[in-house]
Write a structure and sequence with these properties.
CATH architecture of the largest domain: 3-Layer(aba) Sandwich
Shape: elongated
CATH class of the largest domain: Alpha Beta
Radius of gyration: 23 Å
Largest sheet: 6 strands, mixed
CATH topology of the largest domain: Aminopeptidase
Number of strands: 22
Strand content: 15-25%
Number of domains: 2
Helix content: 25-40%
Distance between the termini: 14 Å
Length: 406
């Protein structure tokens, strides 16, 4: 059976009933600084809330991800929020304390409210609504609070899939979408270009080989390469930008004997990591300088001490509009809110790079909060969106199993 209009109204009413609890839980999470690899306290706070609202099982895996389960049905459906945040940057840019924050009748301010602890708060109370209204079905709902995403998006789901053997039928990412339904994103890579040099005294630079000067034409070639990168009608254009520059030199009175740069490379649909590296290696300036082009690795320990190394390649992904996961969310939205949702894509990167990009597990996005709040000072989320997101998350599993699951 499909969900009836009366049941939709009951879900919305119950979500509104829990607005104060959702807001309070979110503010508790925000008050616990939880940058990547420092998430222990916020994970414990989530564990307590999941237990209190009636999750059937709550676990923390060896990497430190929290996994909360509701139901024991055949169809495994997951919903994910990363619960680590970026830092606060220059405090002078904040009008409120980024961890104490503030709230009024409409908004909550603080680091992580949109990106992405608001999604976590809404998911947990969706679990409570499922219990309250007996929306159980032939499904198991897995709610994940994942770690290290800001440092290395998707690493947490590489671990969940590879080491825990968990493969849901689809995953809802609760990254901020302004309550739109997002079905894809560009991929990305972190690339390093390194140029060798030979040091000499600064008074006689001709005796050396200045690595910084050798890097200069590479920077210009990269700027031009960015303009030539391909575009996709849905995801948009591939891009690159130089994000960091490094050098070594014996002193300020010497010729630099090495220079390196970091490149943030965004990959649109159809591009590959091999192709992106080859494009740079084939630049005339790179060849002339004898530069080394490589992909960064990530091997920072999680807060539990576990190191799970990976290369810094995060594939793009696109879910077709006609996929049952996308259709389920569209149906849930129209049933709850009597309007058509915006179906779009993220500009930034999410854990979908592993879920669907690496492992081809369908991924679809719906989240409270706005993309432009991510990593910004005075980060906000909206209470109305938290309530609506909780209602959506509560109806998605039963709607899927009753209408689309095989």
């Amino acid at each position: 059976m499909s969900i009836t209009s009366l049941e939709y109204k009951a879900v919305l009413a119950r979500a509104s009933h829990y607005q104060a609890q959702i807001s309070s839980f979110l503010r508790d999470m925000v008050a616990l600084p939880s940058e990547s690899c420092q998430e222990r306290e916020v994970i414990e706070r989530i564990r307590r809330e999941m237990t209190a609202v009636g999750f059937d099982r709550v676990e923390v895996d060896p990497m430190g991800n929290i996994l909360g389960y509701i139901g024991t049905g055949r169809h495994l459906i997951a919903m994910d929020a990363h619960i680590d945040t970026v830092g606060v940057g220059n405090r002078d840019n904040w009008q409120c304390d980024p961890y104490l924050g503030y709230e009024n009748d409409e908004v909550i301010c603080g680091r992580g409210t949109s990106d992405q602890e608001g999604g976590m708060a809404a998911m947990v109370y969706a679990g409570r609504i499922i219990k309250d209204l007996d929306l159980a079905g032939d499904y198991t709902l897995l709610v994940t609070g994942t770690v290290q995403e800001e440092d290395c998006d998707g690493l947490c789901w590489q671990y969940i899939i590879e080491e825990s053997g968990i493969r849901p039928e689809f995953v809802v990412s609760t990254e901020p979408t302004s309550l739109g339904i997002y079905r894809g994103q560009r991929g990305r890579m972190e690339i390093r270009v390194e140029v060798p040099g030979v040091s000499a005294h600064g008074s006689a630079p001709e005796r050396g080989d200045n690595a910084i000067f050798k890097m200069a034409p590479i920077l210009l070639d990269l700027q031009q390469l960015h303009q030539r990168l391909p575009a996709d009608p849905f995801l948009g254009k591939g891009s690159l930008t130089v994000s960091e520059i490094f050098f070594t030199s014996p002193s300020r009175c010497a010729v630099a004997d090495s220079c390196a740069i970091s490149i943030d490379r965004r990959l649109t649909d159809g591009e590959t990591w091999e192709g992106a590296l080859t494009e740079i290696r084939d630049l005339p300036s790179v060849r002339q300088a004898g530069a080394t082009v490589s992909m960064y690795d990530y091997r920072r320990p999680s807060y539990t001490g576990l190191i799970y190394p990976t290369e810094c390649y995060f594939p793009c992904w696109v879910l077709p509009e006609e996929h049952p996961a996308c259709r389920t969310l569209v149906d849930a939205f129209t049933g709850l809110f009597a309007s058509e949702p915006v179906v779009d894509k993220w500009t930034f990167s999410t854990n979908g790079v592993s879920i669907m990009g690496r492992y081809n597990i369908p991924c679809i996005g719906f989240g409270p909060g706005h993309e432009d709040q991510a990593h910004a000072p005075n980060e906000l989320t909206w209470k109305e969106e938290l309530v609506k997101a909780a209602a959506m998350y509560a109806v998605i599993p039963s709607l899927y199993v009753n209408r689309y699951a095989r």
